[in-house]
Amino acid sequence: MHYFYLRNPILSIRHCQTDAVWRAHVTECADNSLSNTFTFTEKYEMERCEAPVHFETIDWNAIPFGDEEWCYALNRHTFLLNNALTFAITRDRKYFDNWVRLFRDFNSHTKLDEMTAKRSWRSLECGIRVENYIRSIEIFSAMGMMDENLLEELTVFLRKHRDYLISEHTDFHRISNWGVLQDHGLFLSSLFLDDEESMKEAIRRLDEEMALQTLSDGMHWEQSSMYHAEVLHCAMDTVMIADRNSIAIPQSLKENTHALALALGRSLRPDGKCYLFGDSDEIDMRDMMASASVIFSDPSLSYYAGTIDDTRFYLSHELDTVLPEPKKPEEPLVFMKSSGNAFLTIGERSALRLHCGLTGSGHGHIDPLHFDLYSNGEVIITDTGRYTYTSTKERYALKGAYGHNTIILDGKEPVEMFDSWASTPPAEPVFTDALTNGAYSYLSAMHLGYSGTAVRRSILTLSNRFIIIADDIITDQEKSVEILFHLDEGTKIDGDGKRVHVAKNNAKITMLFMHGNAAVSSYPLSKRYNEMLESPLVTVRGTAMERSTFITVLALGSDDFEANLIPLKKPLTGFNVPKSYGMGLIIRDGEDEYSVALMSGEYPEKGFIIKAGNAEAFGRVFVRKNNEKTVVLKY
């Protein structure tokens, strides 16, 4: 047998089983399947479901709860791999017998036809489940359980998958994550069958798909952290196994896979978890970064991996595997212009993300100008997740603009959803600024989703202590404005309509609203598919006319500070810049004082130099701390 995952699976599993949490999960899944009871709770489960479903006789095309995704999860056959792992852990033959029973039940009671091609034999599931069979066969072979009859059955079964996957390839698959996921299965099955021609075709497809789907900044075009990770796994797995078996693959496939890995690492929070970006669950992806660092011998990826503390790593890598020495990024800001994402590290345990870019596929959300805030090891301001793919009010609430930290005008979202996947054309994004200068960082983007109106969000960070958000609305008519801040579950809120204190464990922030009035309500939040929570929503309401700016100051840590608006002056004439074009801020924090200028546009009348408190410059956005040099962030 070819070298797929482990040379000595039994030794590796013996090491893995010392992880009590992992062992409990694997054995529980296997035990449930003994009685035809199924849940889907794998770490990277695409459609998680903790509610158990029991069958007297398994219906492989069943759709419980009215959600087709349950059927898809069933037919990925992760429960088979868990039976194989549990057999290796316990040496109890009932798990091997159960594996064979379930495999034969599926093989004898399903056939590929027009109906099953949309359920139990959907091509995506066919591609995914091949890996679970290959891993199981590797384990059983090492344990001497793979007799000739069973091996022949599995060979015929995998040949059927190869033939179907070869035939099921359209332009849809070329651009969709489906293509990568199912052609990964084609690669594995072809290698298992020693079918060189089909294997070459799988590699050709994967190379083309990765070239089409990987943006120049390394992000996957569908704008979802989770599907980015799924595509990365399959591409990376192909690169790894090809290398182990001396199979030549195009350099472009390696490079695009490497780029995807780097982009995912750069997009993770400081705790290694992904943001709830697009259709994503909250998942710790450091194990994937660890695999990538080994496959590509990349110290940057080692930094995002941290240490190897996830047992799953050792199900694909030998026990003596060592990560490259980690290399910390030199800059705190990563700007991914092609996808419209900016990720800013604030100190050691805080980070901010701003998105204004491609919507991507149906897995992308209506989230122009959305931002997330992670502070002192805690999620504070967050996306609301996905929950379901069914066309329900929950789907619209979480996927739509109201489920994001953005700006809503006249109670209407900038893009209208038709159903779970389709919508009117996306709001045109324009991400103009992303830079760091010493202790200050500046991000600015806008979208054109409202006819006759431009909506711009600018974010200025000061010394890892303050975040200033300036939301500009430039319009030809009066607009009602809602500015949304979705807080994570478990946050405690106190304050009035102008100053709100937010606390979660050791993280504290103060939200100071310089314009409009804030109100607190609740909103649904989902960190995992099929799991719904409630979380606080802070909404700032006001009115915009012609040119209006709404400023919010976020203070990380102590609430002992003052912030006041001041007019911007022209020193040449003493003229005050109209508030519609710009305002200044004075922030006093202990012994420190910041003078800040924020202009929404050029205003050359009566002089070109602008004065904000103790700061002067020719520029639209600039800062001066105490008597230090004035720093211009936008001219």
Automatic annotation (TrEMBL):
It comes from Candidatus Ornithospirochaeta stercoripullorum. The keyword Signal applies. The lineage of its organism: Bacteria, Pseudomonadati, Spirochaetota, Spirochaetia, Spirochaetales. It is found in: Periplasm. Its main location: periplasm. Residues 330-518 form the Heparinase II/III-like C-terminal domain. It comes from the Bacteria. Pfam families: Hepar_II_III_C (PF07940), Hepar_II_III_N (PF16889). GO terms for cellular component: periplasmic space. GO terms for molecular function: lyase activity. Residues 23-298 form the Heparin-sulfate lyase N-terminal domain. Keywords: Lyase, Periplasm, Signal. This is Alginate lyase family protein.
